[in-house]
Structures are given as structure tokens and as C-alpha cells.
From TrEMBL:
InterPro entries, per database record: DIOX_N, IPNS-like_FE2OG_OXY, IPNS-like_sf, Oxoglu/Fe-dep_dioxygenase_dom, Plant_2OG-oxidoreductases
Name this protein carries in UniProt: Fe2OG dioxygenase domain-containing protein
GO molecular function: dioxygenase activity; metal ion binding
Main location class: cytoplasm
The Fe2OG dioxygenase domain, residue ranges: 230-329
Cross-referenced Gene3D superfamilies: B-lactam Antibiotic, Isopenicillin N Synthase, Chain
Cofactor: L-ascorbate
GO CC annotation, single: nucleus
Pfam family, one: DIOX_N
Region feature Disordered, mapped onto this chain: 1-22
Function in brief: Involved in the regulation of shoot development and salicylic acid (SA) homeostasis.
Record's subcellular location: Cytoplasm; Nucleus
């Protein structure tokens, strides 16, 4: 989850010619990449240029993710077969597409209204089109702030910046307590994002219930109750067109700090997943959700499900909008491997963790790759 970033002290308002000249050179004020993109730079500012070993490369591989057909999941006759497919997808790819192959002309059968989905993408686009000072009202150095606007990945610690602007909205249940602090412009943002967050959370509940069934967790009720009142966060991402996309990334390789992420993307491709040592570009299916296993589920399943690395490429012609919803248990809840997932043949592989551990880690490190999850791993020598 590329979210809890502290603000750099060098945030500055304005945009006069002096600033423009400095931005075109090696020093770049950290405000937003859309601000840079709008100025029509033809050269990527140095602070965004990755070392050659970390650049995106040719990236010719593509993937059509396994599909978990939610219509069939809801059908008692097909449920067991769909759950088997979900289990395989979470073990192998750590990713799947929540929709269906059966209705290619209408791939969206997840139950979230198309109007809610297109409405969200539209309002997000309009938010990132607001003049910078109006977006920047929501910049905050407080990582617990329910609303935060920012740029890059882990802005305070990134040695090289990434070509992304974001708006984070905490969307804990019940939602009413969170929405009051969300941006009041565009005027319909709160209402549209709230409708989306509610529908998205319902979909998450359906997917996690199926995953717990797939894992063979006997007592699901109390966990589902906790999840129903759990922690959710909506990360709205904007990746503007980039003058030299081959030199940078929108987001670096990372895994997400949650149980499941439900990702909505527009028609512009950019998401890549690591599969068997290769970066594969995910074909965008407009209106569908990409679901991925987060670190919490890898821990809870004691490593049976994989929280896989993913990253985002940018391009020179089309801006891209995505909305990642991170869902988990309440922030204060400690998570460890489920009793059902641990036995003599499968010893406990992870230490317990909670949100406070994660925030402390992020404040002190870049948080890229699977570094937080690795910090929770129990070394094999300690197990035996
Ligand atoms: O924009 C995307 O496709 C992925 C977003 C993501 O990985 C994140 O927000 O952590």
C-alpha cells in the first residue's frame, strides 16, 4: 500500500518563472507531477530519473488475470468450483479479476453499478484537474489524517520520486464519521466517493468470505463481523502523461498493507504484476475490479496466499486514473497466522503485527518491495 507518506518540508505554493526554471533543472519542488506535466516539460526532471537497473525496461509480457466470476460465486451450484479457482489465483498470482469470461460483452457482473464506477473515475479526474493550491489544501504531514493529498510513493523517504499524485481518503465504517473531512470540491466528491466506498466494501466482504471458506477457516462469523467494521482506505491515483516514461515509474514495486485491495482503473494500461520473475502488464477491462492479496492475508494464511509485488508504468500520451481500496481489520487489531493455517508441517512463518508497527516502519523506511512483510517473517532457523 503506497500511502502513509510524510510531507517534505520543502512544499511551496506558487509557480513563478524562477520556480519553472529550477524545476527544469536538477532541483524540483515537490508538489505534484500533474503540475509538472501541465507545464509541458520535454525532459524528465532529474529527481524522477531512476537508476538504470530500476527502470521499467521493455515490458513486453502481458497477462490476462484469472477470473473469479461473482455471479457464479453467488450461485450455490457453482460456488465450490469458483472458490477453488479463487484459492488457486490467490496462491499462484496473488491477483485475480472480479468479473467473468462468460459475458465478454458485459464483463462486469460484480454487482457494483456502472454508474457508481464511472462516477468515481470522473470525479477523481476532476479533483486532479483543480488548480494546485486547491488540491494542496489537503496536504498533511500527519500520517493518520483521514484525508491526505500528496505525490510520489513514500514522499518523505523516496531517494528518487515517482510519477504519481494521490488523494488518500480513510473510509472506515461507519462511513459518515470519515466523509466530513473529505475534500469539499469538486462539489459532488463526497457523495460520489461515499457511494463508491460503500459498494466497494460490500464487494470486499463477499470476496473475503469466499477466501476464508477457501482457506478452511471454521469460525468465520466473528472475523467477518470485525471486518464489517474494519479499516478501509481509498487511494485515488493520478498518473499524468510523462515526457520520458522509459526513465521512471508511476509506483515502484511494492505490496499492499491490507487483506485485499480492490483496484479500479480507467482504460489506460499501467499496472504490472510480478509473476515467476517477470513483470507482466495487466490488460485493463474497464469497469471490472482487479483484486490482490495484501500483506495481512499473506500473514493470516501463514503464506498460503501471496501478497505479490506490483508496480505502475506511465506513458507519454495518456494520463491514467486508478482507485485502490485497501481493506482490513480495525487498525488497532493485531493480526497473526490463523490457527487453522499452522501445524507441525506448516510452522508459524510470521510474527503478529498491527497498524502501528506498519506506520513506524514506513516513517523510517521507503517501504518498497515487500520490505514490511519481510520484517515480520520468522527466520527458518528460529522455527526449527
Ligand atoms: O494504479 C495502479 O494500478 C496500482 C495502484 C497501487 O498499487 C497502489 O495505490 O498501491
Amino acid at each position: 500500500m503506497a500511502d502513509e507518506h510524510q510531507l517534505p518540508p520543502m512544499f511551496e505554493e506558487g509557480g513563478d518563472d524562477d520556480n519553472s526554471r529550477r524545476e527544469e533543472g536538477s532541483y524540483c519542488l515537490i508538489k505534484s507531477v500533474s503540475h509538472l506535466s501541465d507545464r509541458g516539460f520535454t525532459r524528465l526532471p532529474d529527481r524522477y530519473v531512476l537508476p538504470s537497473s530500476e527502470r521499467p525496461g521493455d515490458g513486453l509480457g502481458r497477462v490476462r488475470l484469472p477470473v473469479v466470476d461473482l455471479e457464479r460465486l453467488r450461485d450455490p451450484i457453482h460456488r465450490a468450483a469458483v472458490i477453488k479457482g479463487l484459492d488457486a489465483a490467490c496462491r499462484d498470482y496473488g491477483f485475480f479479476q472480479a468479473s467473468t469470461h462468460l459475458h465478454r460483452r458485459c464483463p462486469v457482473n460484480h454487482g457494483v453499478d456502472l454508474e457508481v464506477i464511472t462516477g468515481l473515475l470522473d470525479v477523481v479526474r476532476r479533483f486532479f484537474e483543480l488548480p494546485l493550491p486547491r488540491r494542496a489544501r489537503y496536504m498533511s504531514a500527519d500520517v493518520r489524517a483521514p484525508v491526505r493529498y500528496g505525490t510520489s510513493f513514500n514522499q518523505a523517504n523516496d531517494a528518487v520520486l515517482f510519477w504519481r499524485d494521490f488523494l488518500k481518503l480513510a473510509s472506515c465504517q461507519p462511513l459518515q464519521s470519515a466523509t466530513a473531512s473529505w475534500p469539499d470540491e469538486p462539489g459532488d466528491l463526497r457523495e460520489v466517493a461515499a457511494r463508491y466506498a460503500i459498494a466497494n466494501h460490500q464487494l470486499f466482504m463477499e470476496i473475503i468470505e469466499a477466501a476464508l471458506e477457501a482457506l478452511g477457516i471454521a469460525c468465520r462469523c466473528s472475523l467477518l463481523q470485525e471486518l464489517a467494521a474494519g479499516y478501509s482506505q481509498l487511494m485515488l491515483n493520478c498518473y499524468p502523461a510523462c515526457p520520458q516514461p522509459e526513465l521512471t515509474l508511476g509506483l515502484p514495486p511494492h505490496s499492499d498493507y491490507c487483506i485485499f485491495t480492490l483496484l479500479l482503473q480507467d482504460q489506460v494500461e499501467g499496472l504490472q504484476v510480478m509473476h515467476h520473475g517477470r513483470w507482466l502488464t495487466v490488460d485493463p477491462v474497464p469497469g471490472s475490479f482487479i483484486v490482490n492479496v495484501g500483506d495481512h492475508l499473506e500473514i493470516y494464511s501463514n503464506g498460503r496466499y501471496k501478497s505479490k509485488l506490483h508496480r505502475v508504468r506511465v506513458n507519454s500520451s495518456s494520463p491514467r486514473i486508478s482507485a485502490a481500496s485497501f481493506h482490513s481489520l480495525p487498525a488497532e487489531r493485531v493480526i497473526g497466522p490463523a490457527a487453522e493455517m499452522v501445524d507441525e508441517r506448516n510452522p508459524r512463518r510470521y510474527m503478529d503485527t498491527d497498524y502501528a508497527n506498519f506506520l513506524a516502519f514506513l516513517a523510517s523506511a521507503e517501504g518498497q518491495h515487500k520490505s514490511f512483510l519481510q520484517s515480520r517473517e520468522i527466520q527458518q532457523a528460529d522455527i526449527h
